[in-house]
Every structure is written in structure tokens, then in C-alpha cells.
Write a structure and sequence with these properties.
Blueprint (H helix, E strand, L loop, with lengths): L2 H4 L5 H8 L1 H11 L11 H13 L4 H16 L6 H16 L26 E6 L6 H14 L4 E4 L6 H14 L3 E2 L7 H15 L3 E5 L8 H15 L8 E7 L5 H13 L3 E5 L9 H8 L4 E5 L7 E3 L2 H9 L7
Parallel strand pairs: 1-4, 1-5, 2-3, 2-4, 5-6, 6-7
Antiparallel strand pairs: 7-8
Length: 330
């Protein structure tokens, strides 16, 4: 058993295996066959594997890269049987995800321009962007709870004023976690809400502001202009803010995630990603498609409903859970 399997087998590892169960099932026909005895590698084996990767939304570009690498190793006789091919597949998948490995850390607090007292320290400002239904507001609530548990002071900004339920949802998280939430009524100016939140955090000496923003289709120009406006307004308080702009993606959307990354990055300059709802999707392979096209870290992945189910992204652990033959509930 590898070191990564030994780490918290009953906790993070078990939840990750369980969360990836649907995608692992989708992969099983093509990838599972690689482990049914030490069979000779032939065209049918490679074709089944390629189909399995495409079926889990690994994407054409990433699948081509993986298959070319594997076929090259077969041609050079580096792989003698299907078990060796399975091990090589794991290596190629991990290599594809390595550039996406990045730990979420809070920027060190500094003084705000013109600050007159030590209490006016600079909070780390984190924007959360994404389309409706990706779990953005829930993700903010989960992360806020985790940061508080780590000893950080946190303030949340209910900047998704387009959707009344989002404001109430964030307030509910605030009450549950006993954390402050800055909000206004539905239809209020989102930039004003986030500005007030950053100003309040500085006055109270709070470490981090987690700011929700309106979620609509990424193709909607008015949403993108609103996000740009929030950045401009907050920069008046702190030219370095936001320190992070995180796109939240629902794993179930498959290849549509690529256009979301592209459009939001073009509009507001993304610094990282969070991929949610992996437990409800058979398309977790989309992470490889994203890794093939973009150089952005995935800070967290969501594999369930509880606070603990928002996990730091570990490429090696992810691939091993995806290719694991053990029952997820074991």
C-alpha cells in the first residue's frame, strides 16, 4: 500500500473514493479490463481505454495526449501487459494534473494605504465567481467554516444580490458558523456590498473576506461587466485586492467547464478553481481536460454535502481514487 493510501484511510481517502464512484464506474469498462489478468496489449485494449476516457469527459485534447504517450511506451516495449499499461495510465494522468496542484493560502496582512492604526490591516479578499447552480454560495460557507476552524477571522460578503436565495443562504451559513455576513437587499449594487465588506473587515482587523458574486451564464456580458466593476471598486480601498479570484465549477457540466474557465478568466483574471459536485457526476474526467488547456491551480474539490467534503485537491490522491478497484464504501 502506498503512503497516500495510508493517510487518513477512514477519512479523506474514503470520502474521495466514495465521491468518485460514478466516474470510476464509467471508467470501469475500459480501464477495469486492464486489470483482468496480465493480458497482451492490443488495438482493442487501447481502443477500449480511449473510449473510456472520452466517456468521462477527459476531452479529446487530453485523451489524445494520454493515448499518444501510452502508445509510444508500448511501441518502445516499455509496457509488457495490461497491468503495466494500467500503471502507466496512472502516471500519465497524474502528470497531466500536476500543474493544477496549488495550495490555497491567505496573503499576509499588510497595512491599507493611509491606514492610521494597526487595526486597519489589509484583509485578504477572495472573490468567488461562477454560473448559477454550481454550489458557489455553499462552497463559500464551507470554506469559511474551515478557515475559522484553522484560527482565521472571516467575514462573508453576500454580493449575489441578483438572487435573493443566495443572500439568505449565506446569512444561514454565517449564523451556523457564527461568522459575520455583510449584505443588503435583493437588487442592491453588488459592488457596494463587497466594498462595504472589505471596509468593515479592515476596520475590525479581520483576516479574510470571502465575497459571493452574481451567478449567471458566463456568456452574459452584463454579468462580466458587473464583475469588472466590483474589482475596480474594491481596488479603491486596496490596489492589491482581490488577492484571489476563484471560479467554482460544477463537475457535472463536462466540457462546458472549459468555456466557463475561458470566459471568466478573460473578464476578471482567475487565480484558481474549485470543482464541486464530483460525488454526483460521472464526468470527473473534466479536470484532465481543464489541466490540458489552462494553467490554473485547483484549490479544492467538493465530494459531498458536509463541511469536511470540501477537500484540498491532491492530484495523486485523485487519480488513485479514480482508478481504485476497491469498493468506495470499503
Amino acid at each position: 500500500m502506498s503512503d497516500i493510501h495510508q493517510k487518513d484511510e477512514s477519512g479523506l481517502w474514503r470520502r474521495l473514493k466514495s465521491g468518485l464512484k460514478k466516474t470510476r464506474g464509467q471508467l470501469s469498462e475500459g480501464v477495469g479490463n486492464l486489470l483482468l489478468g496480465e493480458k497482451v496489449i492490443n488495438e482493442q485494449v487501447l481502443e477500449d481505454l480511449e473510449t473510456a476516457l472520452l466517456m468521462t469527459d477527459v476531452g479529446v485534447e487530453a485523451t489524445d495526449k494520454i493515448m499518444q504517450a501510452l502508445k509510444s511506451r508500448v511501441t518502445r516495449r516499455q509496457l509488457s501487459n495490461t497491468r503495466a499499461l494500467h500503471e502507466a495510465l496512472a502516471e500519465e494522468l497524474k502528470a497531466l494534473l500536476q500543474p493544477m496542484c496549488g495550495k490555497f493560502t491567505l496573503s499576509p496582512a499588510g497595512q491599507l494605504p493611509g491606514a492610521q492604526s494597526a487595526s486597519r490591516k489589509k484583509p485578504c479578499v477572495v472573490f468567488f465567481v461562477g454560473v448559477n447552480g454550481v454550489g458557489k454560495t455553499t462552497t463559500i460557507g464551507k470554506l469559511a467554516s474551515q478557515l475559522k476552524a484553522e484560527g482565521h477571522s472571516v467575514l462573508m460578503a453576500a454580493g449575489d444580490t441578483f438572487r435573493a436565495a443566495a443572500v439568505e443562504q449565506l446569512k444561514s451559513w454565517g449564523e451556523r458558523s457564527e461568522l459575520p455576513v455583510i449584505s443588503q437587499g435583493q437588487g442592491a449594487d453588488s459592488a457596494s456590498v463587497v466594498f462595504d465588506a472589505v471596509q468593515a473587515a479592515a476596520a475590525r482587523g479581520i483576516d479574510v473576506v470571502l465575497a459571493d458574486t452574481a451567478g449567471r451564464l458566463q456568456a452574459k456580458e452584463n454579468l462580466m461587466q458587473e464583475l469588472k466593476k466590483i474589482k475596480r471598486v474594491v481596488a479603491k480601498l486596496d490596489p492589491d485586492a482581490p488577492q484571489e479570484v476563484i471560479l467554482v465549477i460544477d463537475a457535472g457540466v463536462g466540457q462546458n467547464a472549459l468555456s466557463q474557465v475561458e470566459e471568466f478568466d478573460r473578464a476578471v483574471g482567475l487565480t484558481g478553481l474549485i470543482v464541486t459536485k464530483l460525488d454526483g457526476s460521472a464526468k470527473a474526467g473534466v479536470l484532465f481536460a481543464i489541466g490540458q488547456r489552462f494553467s490554473l491551480p485547483v484549490y479544492f474539490i467538493g465530494v459531498g454535502e458536509s463541511v469536511a467534503d470540501l477537500e484540498p485537491f491532491d492530484p495523486d490522491r485523485f487519480v488513485e481514487a479514480l482508478l481504485s478497484r476497491e469498493d468506495a464504501a470499503s
